[in-house]
Amino acid sequence: MTFSASSPVSFVRTAVDTEIARFIERRRTQLLEIGSELAPAVDALEAMLSGGKRLRPAFCYWGWRGAGGDDVAEIHRAAASLEFLQACALIHDDVIDNSDTRRGLPAAHKRLADLHAAEGWRGAPEAFGRGAAILIGDLCLAWSEDLYQASGLELEALHAGRTPFDAMRTEVMAGQYLDMLEQVREGGDVEATLRVMHYKAAKYTVERPLHMGAALAGRFDDLAGVYTAYGLPLGVAFQLRDDVLGVFGDPEQTGKPAGDDLREGKRTLIVAETLERSGAAARARFLRHLGDPALDGDAVAWMRGVAEESGALAACERRIDDYVGKATAALESGLLDDAARSPLADLVVAATDRKY
Amino acid sequence: MTFSASSPVSFVRTAVDTEIARFIERRRTQLLEIGSELAPAVDALEAMLSGGKRLRPAFCYWGWRGAGGDDVAEIHRAAASLEFLQACALIHDDVIDNSDTRRGLPAAHKRLADLHAAEGWRGAPEAFGRGAAILIGDLCLAWSEDLYQASGLELEALHAGRTPFDAMRTEVMAGQYLDMLEQVREGGDVEATLRVMHYKAAKYTVERPLHMGAALAGRFDDLAGVYTAYGLPLGVAFQLRDDVLGVFGDPEQTGKPAGDDLREGKRTLIVAETLERSGAAARARFLRHLGDPALDGDAVAWMRGVAEESGALAACERRIDDYVGKATAALESGLLDDAARSPLADLVVAATDRKY
Fold first, then answer.
1. Residue A275, C-beta contacts closer than 8 angstroms, at least 6 positions apart
2. What ipTM describes this predicted complex?
3. Segments forming the whole domain that contains residue B145
């Protein structure tokens, strides 16, 4: 997803980046007082916190503005706290999936494993990298709370914001666990995949951050329904767009090799739809290719063909259109502050209108 | 460490156990609504939260009472939140160390790996167990905060308690990282080992929980110094007693095989003292044995002999005595509420007077 420099989203990103950098610098000082050997751990943490899309902070911020909140540094900080939660999720996810890269850079566990190897320390570099990354992710999770609490918002507001914040953390971890389970059980039918998307993408990325913004502004009770009506379909549509791009995306646009999700064997909705809509022979061959790290261009082209001819691609696109319509309609609510209506509409387009 | 049923510590344990059980039951309901397949994850989490010594809650509780706080359910809940933080540390530590047992029961990652194997799921059971345990530990860390915030204490009190609570989490993770670093660098001289003990044991287990109790009662400013003077030496003495027992402990008393820490290769202070006080030949042989999983009784006896004859054991015992004296002296402060003086003195004895 790319945003123009002047968009309401890139504005949030700049403000959030500033708060993240300030917070890390203060914590770096504290950690280096404990031990200068902690520097590589802070560097790895900082690297994971740079360059994200800041989607969750953007929804939290516009959830607050939609509830009539002002543009103040306190909400930038509270919104920025969600990036530390996300950093924990990404760092731990990379350990769980044993993925060595993240946004084209070495994953946290890989950085620390490389340090171990370069220093010639005892034992296996991978084990050290994994252990260090677990601890760095834990730090991110603890710091997420610290930044939230130190945002400078009123204590009553912070207390009100806890309900969605707590739910969000439990739900994303539960969603990750269910996702892991779907992978190993080779389940991943349409229904199970939608449930994982509901928790990992729709609630975690869109709905709960909006709820937090509303709750922090003291407007959870009247706005939660509006934000749910907007956030759940948008979150699923956003993830679906990502999934379609993972199969059909142009490497020049996505920055990933063609058919990357197929090579990784991800049990996405388009895969589930393809399997449910194909005959036994095509399904068996599709499953043989799925997750093959040596998948070549011909096989990717064949798999794309099956996804298209089975009607799976069209089903996904219909679903995206349908959900985009629902999310957009929810913005007509008179409860929303006008300041947020157009930015929230922009976010729908930005999240779902990417081409392949 | 064992406490009599009527001790002020076992009293805290019972109250804390009740709050932990209540909290988990509420969360279990929430998780099972997300997906019934989450049941084994909640079971593993619950198992890790049963049977601990509840040391950190005890120090938090008596820190509060020493500051004049009443015996109310709110402080039981706030104190219980520290057990969820500790559960995260233990679950992740077992993954990092690849330890399959904890308190004689399967570690969380082992339980989930066993489930994977029993169900015949795809992929390596160990990788699934590790991934699941990372997520379960993350849940514990998030829930620690949730229980703290839902304790029912005044928002101003909770805000004041954050300073030590935040510091505690950063320090324990930094301490774990430094500990991991000492193991792989084969460093672990006396000074480096004392630094890890300072963060992982003294501050995390004793000083910060006491600080939290004082801060929650609005008495951090005047009591922090007293609790530091009591807590830091006591924390190191407690860890030292554990380390000495790890080498000299009677299996019938400790529940672990004789010389277990030697077999695991732990870089404890008694090991550091032994290495610094031995000649080159003895040091080389000691290092060859250290961490040998097949270490036999004769080798353990020889290593114990070196630790004793080098003066390392006596040095550790002197240090324990010295620190116990300092911790006990700190309790004479007139700032402490009398209700806590005798329980805090009992805790010194309970933590350091275990025999081998």
1. A189, A283, A286, A287
2. 0.93
3. 8-153
